């Protein structure tokens, strides 16, 4: 049994066709078929059932594919780590578009500006941030979640062999600009939002653990008059220049981030949010990352 044979099995399953797999692998179709037949003979098991519509896994084939996929993924991660991405001077972080993380990340870059570092900050949804962490594309990931999601998220992290540290708490509120007619309200009801655009940061409303349920719990219909954005600059520009609002987290800190945008609570509604940092279990962090985490935790 050879690694390439396992890689061929994975490619055939994921493309659903020997011809497409052969094209992707840059080998001839007869050669690929021969390699698969050789592996089947060696194992004494039939992996694929050949049909007029292509190939499909047999019962034994599904088990073989599962192990092959695991081994191929592990090989690719090891190859990436050893050959292409070995750099002790990289600081790689995934976040959820948080202004707090962004501010402290900038401070970290300034502290170590005289050293030969490459700093990378990704703005991702939960799924993408955790995938990057598992695949070692980042060193740590900052995530946010509601009290509704907490139990499931912590179980999910444990299953993925990840560990977390809770940093700060906050509350879902409405984001409006300082010139809005709603600016001086002590609280806002759903009726106050009639006719306004709802601005949504894409990364917060995609993936397994998004904020769609929480927004519904607040009584908001965010399927009307929506403006979707992918970056913080567009988000802020729209809130400042258009009659609009957004759902955001008001973190409990002494710092006033984006002071020109006001955070106003909902009437008779409170949803608690948390921000945590996630890392791979039992893995030591660089001192620079420890400093960043400590700085963010100190804000609470």
Automatic annotation (TrEMBL):
Gene Ontology molecular functions: DNA binding; DNA-binding transcription factor activity
Pfam family, one: HTH_1
Domain HTH lysR-type: 1-58
Keyword set includes Transport: no
Coiled-coil residue windows: none
Transmembrane segments: none
PROSITE patterns hit by this protein: HTH_LYSR (PS50931)
Record keywords, A-Z: DNA-binding, Transcription, Transcription regulation
Annotated family: Belongs to the LysR transcriptional regulatory family.
Annotated protein name in UniProt: HTH lysR-type domain-containing protein
